[in-house]
Amino acid sequence: MPARLKLIVAYDGASFSGWQSQRNGNGIQDHLESAIQQICSERVRVHGAGRTDAGVHALAQCAHVDLPAKRYGAERWRSALNGVLPPAIRIMQCRFVAESFHARFSAKGKIYRYRIWSGEVLPPLENGRVWHVREPLERAALAAAAPLFTGRHDFASFLYKMVRLMVGALVDLGFGKASADEIQSRLHHPRPRFSHARHVAPAAGLFLVRVRY
């Protein structure tokens, strides 16, 4: 009997082409599917809660896979997968779930964290895990503008690379290159066709922290 396995996956996205399967075989999805095939000798499809771009990290991405049979317990699957996956990808938890569970469509929300290192010198252990901003930021302006994103809004102007566009807008404000009124205008009068021209924060500082169900 087929069995649905839920996976909580952590990864350092620096050396991968994002979550989604790629022609070069270097998506997180590619590596997971390859690892499962090595164990059960059958090609399967892994479904993620959402895509992360190249260079974006995850502390707890969620995915599920329909295995051809429930041959092993969940703990053994975790151990076996971690034994063949690249060190930068790890299965933190796994368990069998009902067929009604879907990693993407059952999700109620996602929690992201974006990290900025503000200072002239970047500590080496932060390399690839933060946006290094050398110039001083007006922190009071950032603190005042950040709550503008709280609540229910039409985020069409920030939809593509959403979190990175929001952070980019805040950093521009912190540099004095934009105003809180501009952010408010983009929320009240969204213009998605212009989103690509906005400042997109680097992928390295973004972490998918948790998927809510």
Summarize the structure.
The chain has 213 residues and is an alpha/beta fold. Helix content is 25%, strand content 24%. The chain folds into 2 domains: 3-97, Pseudouridine synthase I, catalytic domain, N-terminal subdomain (Alpha-Beta Plaits); 115-205, Alpha-Beta Plaits (2-Layer Sandwich).
CATH architectural arrangement of the largest domain: 2-Layer Sandwich
CATH level-four homologous superfamily name of the largest domain: Pseudouridine synthase I, catalytic domain, N-terminal subdomain
Number of H- or I-type helical stretches: 5
What is the number of beta strands?
Answer: 8
Q: Rg to the nearest angstrom?
A: 20 Å
CATH structural fold name of the largest domain: Alpha-Beta Plaits
Helix content: 10-25%
**Overall spatial form:** elongated
Structural class: alpha/beta
By CATH reckoning, the class of the largest domain would read Alpha Beta
Biggest beta sheet summary? 6 strands, mixed
Provide the domain count.
2
